[in-house]
Specification:
The chain folds into 2 domains: about 120 residues, Ubiquitin-like (UB roll); about 70 residues, no CATH class. Helix content is about 25%, strand content about 15%. It has 5 helices and 6 strands; from the N terminus they run αββαββββααα. Strands 1, 2, 3, 4, 5 and 6 form a 6-stranded mixed beta sheet that branches.
Length: about 210
């Protein structure tokens, strides 16, 4: 059973109690709202799931852009969120009973919302298809693992590995250094599988605790 074929059946089968409807903004920040499963299913039937359109005006630092486009200086009209049930997946790391779903944003008259990255990307892909092109994407994500640090005045530091020590020198492509973070790496693989993300390879980069 897949979410596309039978969303209700899939949610019941997975024991989902809450669904987070996600709308990515232009900065890649996931905005949206969480609903009990019954409310989510009803919103699919009624097409009655809304979010303030100002959600697309939030800057990366959390402040609003101050745009007056389409009258935002005087009102904050709702936009309709239409969940893409093909994207339903278990919520990695959130514990049992929760699922994620991406949603598309529309005006109340069903026009695609101008600032929705999903609509922009879809329009670009349509242009590609018209030319007989096919997009091939191979993202390479690089990141640092850091020790817990609740004090913003203190610099970040590398976490302690399985050998009980923190990295202090470079270990590019070092497999032994990579294995120091095996518990975290295993969790990354598990979470990616739950979200339907096909991971390819993983290496240790040049920085301390950089993967």
């Amino acid at each position: 059973m897949t979410p596309t074929d039978d969303p209700k059946g899939w949610l019941e089968q997975q024991g989902i109690r809450e669904v987070e409807c996600l709308v990515p903004d232009v900065n890649g920040v996931l905005r949206g709202k969480a609903l009990p499963t019954a409310k989510f299913l009803k919103s699919l039937e009624d097409r009655a799931l809304y979010l303030p359109s100002s959600a697309f005006l939030v800057c990366i630092d959390g402040r609003y852009s101050g745009s007056n486009d389409e009258g935002f200086g005087y009102q904050d009209p709702d936009m309709r969120m239409v969940p893409d049930v093909a994207t339903l997946c278990l919520a990695p790391g959130a514990g049992a009973g929760k699922a994620y779903v991406f949603a598309d944003a529309f005006h109340m008259d069903d026009r695609p919302w101008m600032a929705s990255p999903r609509h922009v990307l879809r329009a670009v892909l349509d242009l590609y298809r018209q030319r007989g092109w096919r997009a091939v994407v191979a993202p390479e994500l690089e990141f640092y693992l850091t020790a817990p640090n609740p004090d913003p005045d203190r610099p970040l530091s590398a976490p302690v590995g399985r050998n009980g020590r923190s990295e202090t020198v470079q270990h590019p492509y070092d497999m032994a250094a990579l294995e120091e973070f095996e518990p975290v790496i295993r969790r990354l693989y598990d979470y990616a599988a739950a979200a339907g993300l096909p991971l390819d390879t993983l290496i240790h980069e040049s920085g301390t605790a950089q993967l």
